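Aim 2 progress update. The chain analyzed this quarter is reproduced below.
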Amino acid sequence: MNATTTAIRPTDRRAATIVVACLGVFVAYLPITTVAVSLPAIQRALNTSTAQLSWVQDAFVLPMAAFILTAGVFGDVHGRKKVFLSGLFCCAAGAAVALCAQDIQTLWAGQALAGLGSAALLPTTLALISHAVPDHRERGKFIGMWAMALLAALAVGPVIAGVILDHFAWRWIYLLSVPLPLVALAVAAPLLTDSRAQHGRKLDWPGQITAAVGITALVYGVIEGGADSFTAPKVAAALALGVVALGAFVLVERRSASPMLDLAVFRSAAFTATALIALITFLGLIGFFFVLSLYFGMVQQLGTLEAGARLLLVPVAAIVAGAPAGRLMHRVPARWMITAGLLLIAGPLLAMTDLDADTSYGSIAWRLIVLGVGIGLVTTPMTATAVAAVPHRLAGMASAANNTFRQVGGALGPAVLGALLSTRAVHTLPGHLADAGVTGAQAHTVVATAEEGGLGAVAGMDLGSTAGQVYGALGESLLDGLRLCLVVAAMLAVLAAACAVVLLRPSKQQVAEGAAKDGSAARLGRPDAAEDAQAGPAQPLGHQRA
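Predicted structure tokens:
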């Protein structure tokens, strides 16, 4: 062992692991909101269609959702440090490609490469923390730090993009995403302690292939169905392929000696609950942010920086509320923290159904703050419970699976809620045009344009003297769609809360253990450490049942 290695104490290595893991999840999530608020500028600069523009974001989300499980397995088998460093390199390379893009296809390639890197970072960051902090009671506060880093990336993205777009070309939004992962890579290479799964895990190629094909086809089908029609041949084929591939994945995993995702983990009520909560919550929330950004841009006519500053309230409130969440987990059962947070999310969403074009910033602000507090209360205990619900040796698998459900929900959210908004808005547009005094051939042309190219296509029409009336009608139609999406998002949060109440109930065994010990395992929905040590690969990995 060399002098450099011996000079680094174990506590220093643990601190370095936690810091680098938090930096890694920040790198993984930064492009999501940074690019999302920059899409109008990208469209103008590259002269793209609406369909082409939608794939800028989707090109990042698809590989991120499809390969998280694969990255988790590679980390368990070959070492999480190697996968983590590879993820940082891919993120930097993808951002560099996007920074130099002169056409939409090159931008797609850069986004896809960065998404692949993010898929490698998400499961390995949590698994590295789990290995560095084996005590699940102490681990909660560090997972809270990880969750705060995730939310911080979502918070600063719109602000960074707004400042850059006010002074420079759109491509410079990628500038920070090149050196940041490279700095993290340079720090992590000498300091990060490697880890891998014990008990001889092996690569499960049939499972990896069927999972990647299934998730990609399913998400692609929903995205394209929302943008076009769910009856279109390519959409129907993609959805059918997704169902078949995911069915094949289940069959493969049931027969595999070393499964990519051991389906026995779903016998744990805690793990199943957190997977469903992650999917449902992120479907509603990411979809909500998508439609709210349309409200700020197309209804209230705000610039990128102004809209980003308003959206900033949500993650900032989540960070403030989430900071003590890791410590509270040892005093308040995760079941009630998650339920309370989800209900706090649902309340403001319903309260925002009275938004109109003239709603003041102050009136919106308090609702966004309460929404952020709810997110802060949900994120940390949800993630910690997922990791703690399985034996310690499978922390990588648990974090990868939880992140997969989270990302699939996040990928489907804009597609599903965007389709609902568009459908509702186009349906009510003729009535609002008539109320505004726009009738006859012009009204028919406006509606046909909206049906064919989306609501944004109407802005490119030559409307003459009726432009103000048409834009007013378009804004009212968008508000109709927004209100429907807010109700749907709120109902999804309530559904997730119901999952928490029903599935996160402690078992009788856990209640008995909690009476004998300090109750921490019961609050986290986790088997005790002794059971983890005894559980063999063939045993069910969860001991609670719904």
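The radius of gyration is 23 Å. The mean pLDDT is 80. These observations will guide the mutagenesis experiments scheduled for the next reporting period.
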